[in-house]
Design goal:
TIM Barrel; binds iron/sulfur cluster
Length: 343
């Protein structure tokens, strides 16, 4: 995901992301890591195993995002979303934010050991920890390295609250561990599902699981007692913002029992904008002039964002009524205008 940015205003998000990324980059590579070429189900990927000096990143106190600490056990992300805001974090050590971001994954192989040391009593105050803020914790690499799985176990043992934002249905591998953790402490999970339009999904998120598999995962997590919400985002102007597309994704999320739904309109900061528009030029050149006009600034206008929120609010209400008419009295999602994480 890198998907956490819905939590704060545009300026706040930018400050947080830049401040978090900088020190970590300095720490990771004092000696060049070996490259491990993926084989079998990991074909097409390369892994760079590194020893992280610290695994918990502290968000500066001046940043008003609703979480103070994050863990990102990987850098880069094989989900390869064209719009990913974390791409510029890969622009170092000769790696680039385009192809390398998608296929050369930095793996903090000591993440679990570091976490155990860093949350030891007397050293740690038990703050909630957010995962999925700069890379997806359930991308393909997790199938090989099991770092997120180990981190969940450590946080669960310590009864330390945490949240996970992902597009990876691999999270279901850990459903029993997450359910146990949810009995011990506050656990919030969220899926990022920007659209259920198959064509747009294949174009814009080529490395992610099918959106309907993600919808099914939302239902399974909630059925297992693990709170799971949906971030409908980013919604791509001209590609996934048609009324019928929004209706389909909201309806699917309501049916899946999402705890809350937060819509997010695409934003394009420098570094990401160039990548996205280059992709758009190949995929939908007819939309490029409109994007240049709309994204003179990184964020869509307040009016455009408010209009999207109002549309999604109405769609949630419509689908709640539909489900109620069917006789169901199960829990229904609410609109979240701030993407929620434990504090
Ligand atoms: S899933 Fe991965 S590539 Fe897609 S937005 Fe999140 S971090 Fe970026």
């Amino acid at each position: 995901m890198a998907h956490p940015e819905a939590a704060a205003s545009p300026g706040e998000r930018l400050r947080w992301q830049v401040v978090e990324a900088a020190p970590e980059q300095q720490q990771l590579f004092e000696t060049p890591p070996e490259r491990i070429v993926g084989t079998g189900e990991f074909r097409g990927l390369e892994f760079l195993p590194v020893q992280a000096r610290r695994i918990i990143n502290e968000v500066p106190k001046t940043s008003p995002v609703p979480f103070r600490h994050t863990i990102n056990a990987y850098r880069g992300c094989s989900h390869a979303c064209t719009y990913c805001f974390a791409r510029p974090t890969h622009d170092y050590l000769g790696l680039d934010s385009d192809v390398d971001f998608d296929r050369v994954i930095v793996v903090k192989v000591n993440a679990v050991e570091r976490l155990r040391a860093e949350i030891a009593p007397k050293r740690w105050n038990g703050d909630a920890i957010a995962m999925g803020t700069n890379t997806d914790p359930y991308q393909r690499a997790e199938g090989k390295y099991h770092l997120t799985q180990g981190i969940i176990d450590v946080l669960s043992e310590a009864r330390n609250p945490f949240s996970i934002l992902t597009k990876g249905t691999l999270i279901l591998r850990d459903i029993d561990a997450l359910a146990e953790a949810a009995r011990r402490t506050s656990v919030e999970t969220s899926f990022s599902i920007g659209t259920v339009d198959e064509e747009v999904w294949k174009l814009s998120e080529p490395g992610t699981p099918h959106p309907m598999r993600r919808v099914e995962a939302v239902a399974k997590l909630n059925e297992a007692g693990i709170r799971c919400s949906v971030l409908i985002g980013p919604i791509l102007p001209g590609l996934s913002d048609a009324p019928e597309q929004l209706d389909a994704v909201v309806g699917a999320c309501v049916d899946a029992g999402a705890r809350s739904i937060a819509p997010i309109l695409l934003h394009l900061r420098p570094g990401v904008k160039e990548h996205y528009l280059g992709w758009l030029q190949g995929a939908r050149p007819d939309l490029v002039p409109e994007y240049h006009e709309r994204y003179r600034r990184a964020y869509a206008s307040t009016e455009q964002r408010n209009a999207l929120t109002a549309t999604v609010r109405d769609l949630i209400a419509k689908h709640r009524r539909r489900v109620r008419r069917s006789g169901s009295n199960r829990a229904m999602p609410t609109l979240s205008e701030r993407f929620e994480r434990p504090r």
